[in-house]
Amino acid sequence: MQYTSTRDKNLHLTGSQAIAQGLSPEGGLLVPENFPHLSAEDLDGLKRVSYPERAARVMSLFLDDFSEEELKDFSDRAYSRFDTPTVTPLRILNGNTFCLELWHGPTCAFKDLALQMLPLLLTSALQKNGEDRKAFVLAATSGDTGKAALEGFRDVDRTKILTFYPQNGVSRIQKLQMVTQEGNNVGVCAVDGNFDDAQAGVKRLFTDPEIAARLDDKGFFLTSANSINWGRVLPQIVYYVSVYCQLRKAGAMPPDGHMNVCVPTGNFGNILAAYYAKKMGVPIGKLICASNSNNVLTDFIKTGTYDRNRTFYQTISPSMDILVSSNLERLLFDLSGEDDALIAGYMDQLSRDGKYTVTEEITAKIQDQFEAGFCDENMTRLTINSMWWDVNYLVDPHTAVAFQVLGRYRDRTGDESPAVVVSTASPYKFCGSVLEALGASGVANGGAELIGKLQNLTEVPAPAPLADLADREIRFTGCVEPDEMAGPVLEMLS
Ligand SMILES: *Cc1c(COP(=O)(O)O)cnc(C)c1O
Q1: Confidence at residue 169, expressed as pLDDT on a 0 to 100 scale
Q2: Rounded to an integer, what is the distance from CA 390 to the centroid of its chain?
Q3: 268-277 per-position pLDDT tens digit
Q4: Ligand 1 center to residue 240 CA distance, Å?
Q5: Residues 295-316, buried b or exposed e (16+ Cβ, 10 A)?
Q6: Are strands 159-166 and 186-191 parallel, antiparallel or unpaired?
Q7: According to the model, what pLDDT value does residue 164 have?
Q8: How far is the CA of 376 from the centre of ligand 1 (A)?
């Protein structure tokens, strides 16, 4: 299995090289050159095994320079820190609506599924490629990635990790989770800007020759934990294979049935993994892309024009406050028939003019498989409220966006196929917004004490990793301008 770049098909890498590099030198994203197919028999076999075994089997189809034993060992370790043996429990809400809870890992967001795995893949990939320098992991975060990456890389040998987060773009709980991070190889710094500023700053650091030289002097090289790394996308494909197995096992879907999936989307990594699972043969019908008021993807899927020149909204679902969804590039590469020059052109237009329009043919292919909708702040709050009082199910604002968008898709189309809503964060990560939506008062400037308040109100137990947040020591207080992000990197080296 070889990997190539979305902007240069002359490149050929092994799986471990793709993971070790993160990004292609010319700025493209690394993608598999072909996709393995899962037959009905394969899926049936996967239905019978545990989540870690499913993960090892699916990943081994893409990573032939890792042994199956090695991958099984990694997935046993990665998923042992989840609070349930099923890893990704499926909640049945009614006959045809299911919720896949992806937040049972150590940081209570779906990023753990990939970021508990990535450090194991990455350090092994470095070894396999005779890399004797150490990895300096740099991440921009809209809230959840940073914490999940810090927790995944914490005290991992031969690595250091630094994460940047937008100063006022994450929830209090998220911020507290990051600034209290433990470990001897970790750094956390705020950026005076939004997520796109932080992400653009990280991208600049990656192409800054002076930073590369300074790192090299100290025996390090830069690598990424953002969802542009293939080692992030691959473990996410696993849970879409797994949810099909779970539905079949629960008797909730006939052998020839299909499921729609509805995914609260930001950087397009999660829903891209669903698309890849569908491409591999998992019976997925519509891929429903749910956005908040930052609805650049809704417009794109409806029109074929991607236009980031618009107001940026800070919402109560901050992990979706994104105007440039990096992983869309991988989808466009696939749907264009792997036309690297075309994709390079689009990305060039995006960085020059902030917009591009894909061909009619690509637009048609997108609309054939994807549906899109968005949900504003009021609707998000109303959905949290009604999900709790009507269905007795507590959801975070990101998941609420997806429920709302699914409901409207069903109203519009009458498509009542079994649908899986992907729940990407524990409601306790956003307890201020959740409490407000439930009608609680006096929560406006609350911090970690709101966890207890939400627990008292709902009697839904808070996840263990969040319960003692208020007592942890604050270790990181720095904040820099977007053009000063090299500073903290150099500081961590000295
Ligand atoms: C990261 C994140 C998202 C967006 O996922 P993408 O893969 O970036 O599309 C949605 N919800 C939550 C809670 C997240 O942490």
Answers
A1: 78
A2: 29
A3: 999 999 999 9
A4: 15
A5: bbbbbbbbebebbbeeebeebb
A6: parallel
A7: 95
A8: 17
